[in-house]
Amino acid sequence: MTAKKLLILPGDGIGQEVMVQVRRIIDWMGKKRNISFDITEGLIGGSAYDVHGTPLADETLADAMAADAVLLGAVGGPKWDDLPFDKKPERGLLKIRKEMGLFANLRPATVFDALVDASTLKADVVQGLDIMIVRELTGGLYFGQPRGIETLPNGERKGVNTLTYTTSEIQRIGRAAFDLARKRNKKLCSVDKANVLECTVLWREEMIKLQQTEYQDVELTHMYVDNAAMQLVRNPKQFDVMVTENMFGDILSDCAAMLTGSLGMLPSASLGAADANGNRKALYEPVHGSAPDIQGKDIANPLATILSFSMCLRYSFNMDAEADMIENAVKAVLKGGLRTADIMAPGKAKVSTSVMGESIIRELEKLA
Ligand code: NAD
Ligand code: IPM
Ligand code: MN
């Protein structure tokens, strides 16, 4: 079997720190499981700007297009906040998502039993939680035209962003979400703002049509996004799969992260359309950012990125056994009471990013 091509883009801030821990797992897999990847490492975000003068160089994008999967840390930081808009680190991330056609962003929020007490919510609200947020990733308010800042004849300035979706964009994210729901508990909640925004009236109509024509076995409900944010903290277990617009999904997934104990726990997969052979372009990244407030302290939680790598093994490389091993190692380490600062609880042992990574390897050794 030829080695799978993996492009690793650590990015900025804690993105680089957590990716070191994933590299250790990859090294371990090479030594102990005889699985090796054809790895290229590249720059994205502020670190790419510092070297190339752009947050995503054409060569890096070409590497991403040629890879079987991309694993990304995080981008951004105060050092680059005052750059012109098109040079900002975040533009690099948005460009790679758009150019790779990664319209479906899967953000699973699952609560590990050992972390029930790490959530700021009551244990019975979150225990056993397993929901999937499907965020549309290449359209909506993030990409709609017109956009920009203009000066009006009266000297005032005007900022514009536009929420747009075509029926085909709605249908493809709808199908991705319905397909996932079908494999889970067959419940899909479509989140919109159809009481106010026409674009999401269309979204709702298209979701209903899909359900009636292709997914009658899946129960479809609708919820306004403001209510959905409230329901996520009131009673998150009412949800199975949620599907929503790009920016709504960005906000709801950070909110869902706290149900699991920390933003440092939430992985994600961003997938494109399947080709004739069933292969998809794919990028895996934690939901969190570059966390400048804790950068350089060796205290970031690497588990979201480690779990993103496990999603990569499962979705892109068909390595379910290894993905299971990583998830079981994470469970075992948490059960053993080790915690990075963000998920620390009384009576547990506080460990650094690197000790968390080492501990995962130790558990993998036991499971091998
Ligand atoms: P952030 O996600 O970086 O941090 C939010 C809070 O969560 C911070 O207090 C941080 O310390 C904490 N946190 C995040 N990840 C953690 C981890 N793994 N372990 C422990 N604590 C963690 O969001 P922000 O502060 O709003 O943004 C900082 C920068 O990151 C900005 O430049 C932003 O644009 C960028 N960002 C990038 C991505 C991405 O690359 N996907 C996502 C979000 C934000
Ligand atoms: C995320 C981030 C990004 C987004 C930013 C950094 C462009 O917040 O991945 O959730 O808004 O999509
Ligand atoms: Mn976000």
TrEMBL record:
This is 3-isopropylmalate dehydrogenase. One of its GO terms (cellular component) is cytosol. InterPro entries: IsoCit/isopropylmalate_DH_CS (IPR019818), IsoPropMal-DH-like_dom (IPR024084), Isopropylmalate_DH (IPR004429). NAD(+) binds at residues 77-90, 289-301. Catalyzes the oxidation of 3-carboxy-2-hydroxy-4-methylpentanoate (3-isopropylmalate) to 3-carboxy-4-methyl-2-oxopentanoate. The product decarboxylates to 4-methyl-2 oxopentanoate. Binds 1 Mg(2+) or Mn(2+) ion per subunit. The record marks 142, 193 as: Important for catalysis. Signal peptide: none annotated. It comes from the Bacteria. Belongs to the isocitrate and isopropylmalate dehydrogenases family. LeuB type 1 subfamily. It is found in: Cytoplasm. Keywords: Amino-acid biosynthesis, Branched-chain amino acid biosynthesis, Cytoplasm, Leucine biosynthesis, Magnesium, Manganese, Metal-binding, NAD, Oxidoreductase. It holds the Pfam family Iso_dh. Pathway: Amino-acid biosynthesis; L-leucine biosynthesis; L-leucine from 3-methyl-2-oxobutanoate: step 3/4. Mg(2+) binds at residues 226, 250, 254. The gene is leuB. One of its GO terms (molecular function) is magnesium ion binding. SUPFAM superfamilies: Isocitrate/Isopropylmalate dehydrogenase-like. HAMAP family: LeuB_type1. Its cofactor is Mg(2+); Mn(2+). Homodimer. It catalyses: (2R,3S)-3-isopropylmalate + NAD(+) = 4-methyl-2-oxopentanoate + CO2 + NADH. Its EC number is 1.1.1.85. GO terms for biological process: L-leucine biosynthetic process.
